[in-house]
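Quick look at the format.
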Amino acid sequence: MSPSKPVPPYIAGVQKTSITVGWLPNDEGTGLVDEYTLEYKEMFKQHQQPQDGWKTLSIQKWAPAEQLLHIYEKLPPNASYTFRVKARNKIGWGVFSEPSEIVTTEASHPDR
């Protein structure tokens, strides 16, 4: 049986040029899940509609919850993103989580 559907990723921190994304391990303690794929989608600012399709941000081996974090860096200020995650075991990949909340990097300082 493929891994269960993970809960949506959460936002652990937001800066002007970075977002820290975390997610909870699913099937924790069973030893069945061995890898996660984290994807992102950039959103338009006006209506929060997606600009493009989903893109892979990180592939990470299973780890305890406090280590399941990814820092997405070198982002433009005032840009919006959403994230999703899926898990893999010996049988194959599970389904993606629902998307996270939409998060926006901090705005830069105005020009003088």
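Next, a different chain entirely:
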Amino acid sequence: MQHLQAEIERRFGTVHRFCREHPELNRATVYMLLAGTYGGNTERQAERIRDALGDNRKEKQVFEAIKQAACARCHFGQPCSRCDSLFKTQTDAAMKVFSS
């Protein structure tokens, strides 16, 4: 997690400023994750921070495009998270094709 903290400090100056500019992230969670004391799913939280930093921008765009197209055809009628693991797998496969 040191690389995340270094990137945050390089781009925002302080972790505090990063958190202020990204209110969608829980400040306490960010600090605990960077300190190595977070007790939850550290990879998921690190991914959220990387998303906020813009490191996964293309991957996120592909994921959202897949989800939007699938949810438009779904019988539940509204977006949810039921199929997100499938969409993530499809996104990973598409990103491999793009990187070739």
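The mean pLDDT is 91.

See the schema section for token definitions.
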